[in-house]
UniProtKB/TrEMBL annotation:
Keywords: Lyase. It comes from the Bacteria. It is an enzyme of class 4 (lyase). The keyword Lyase applies. SUPFAM superfamilies: ClpP/crotonase. One of its GO terms (molecular function) is lyase activity. This is Malonate decarboxylase gamma subunit. Its EC number is 4.1.1.87. It holds the Pfam family MdcE.
C-alpha cells in the first residue's frame, strides 16, 4: 500500500504527514489525541542521515510532548550498503535510533510499529522490532534474508533450507511467519482506524514476543529458555 493511501485511511485526507525524500514525518490527531508519526517510504535503505532524522523526531517528541504516542510506518530494504555510511558509523547511527525508541517506551510513550510495505534486516530491527509491538498489513513483506543468501551464510544447501521453511517459520520469509514467531503481534485488516485504536489502548508495554511465539507454535524454545535464565539469576 502507498503511504498516502494508508495515512488517508488512518487519519483522513488532512492527515498532515509529509515526505522529505524517503523520510515521513507528521503530527496527526487521532480521535482527539495527538500522535507523532515517523516513517520511511520507497523501500528506503536506512543510512546515517535517515536513522538520525528519525531519532531526532523521537527525541523532540520526548522533550516537547511527554507521553505522546509514536507510530512508526515501516517500508525499508534494510541498512544502506555504502562505504560512506560505513565510514560515518552506520552501526552507531542505527543503534542510536533503536536506543531513542527504547528510551521513549521507558518514559511512557506508547510506540507502535506498522509494516505497511516492506521490512528487511537492520532497518526493521532498529524500528518496528523495538516498538512496544509491531503490526503489519496482510500484503506486507517481511524477512531477514532470502533463502539463497541464508544458504551462503550458513553453508547449508538451499534445498535443505527450503524444506525447513515449510515447517519452521524461523527459516521462512513472509508476514504470516512473523506473526507465528511473535515478531508481529497481529495483522491489520479491514477497519484500519479501529486497529490503530485497539493497538494504542491494548498493546502491552512488556515484551510478550517470546510467549506469543510459543503459543502460536512458531518459536517454541525462546520463552522456556528466557524463563530458565530468569530462574537461575
Amino acid at each position: 500500500m502507498e503511504w498516502i493511501s494508508l495515512a488517508t485511511q488512518l487519519f483522513g485526507s488532512g492527515h498532515g504527514i509529509r515526505a522529505d525524500g524517503d523520510f515521513l514525518q507528521g503530527d496527526v490527531v487521532f480521535e482527539g489525541e495527538h500522535v507523532t508519526v515517523i516513517g520511511t517510504t520507497n523501500h528506503a535503505p536506512i543510512g546515517v542521515k535517515l536513522a538520525l532524522a528519525q531519532a531526532r523526531v523521537v527525541l523532540d517528541t520526548m522533550a516537547q510532548h511527554p507521553g505522546r504516542p509514536i507510530l512508526l510506518l515501516i517500508d525499508t530494504q534494510g541498512q544502506q550498503l555504502r562505504r560512506r555510511d560505513e565510514l560515518l558509523g552506520i552501526n552507531r547511527a542505527m543503534a542510536h535510533l533503536g536506543t531513542t525508541i527504547d528510551v521513549a517506551r521507558r518514559r511512557g510513550h506508547r510506540v507502535i510499529g506498522l509494516v505497511y510495505d516492506q521490512a528487511l534486516s537492520g532497518g526493521f530491527i532498529t524500528s518496528g522490532l523495538i516498538a512496544d509491538a509491531c503490526y503489519a498489513l496482510p500484503e506486507a513483506e517481511i524477512r531477514v534474508m532470502r533463502i539463497p543468501a541464508m544458504a551462503r551464510v550458513t553453508k547449508l544447501p538451499e534445498e535443505k533450507l527450503a524444506a525447513l521453511s515449510q515447517s519452521n517459520p524461523v527459516f521462512a520469509p513472509g508476514v504470516q511467519n512473523y506473526v507465528a514467531m511473535g515478531g508481529v503481534r497481529a495483522l491489520w485488516q479491514g477497519d484500519l482506524p479501529a486497529a490503530l485504536r485497539d493497538a494504542l489502548r491494548h498493546t502491552p508495554t512488556e515484551d510478550t514476543r517470546a510467549q506469543d511465539g510459543a503459543q502460536r507454535g512458531g518459536r517454541r524454545l525462546a520463552a522456556p529458555v528466557v524463563q530458565r535464565v530468569l530462574d537461575a539469576a
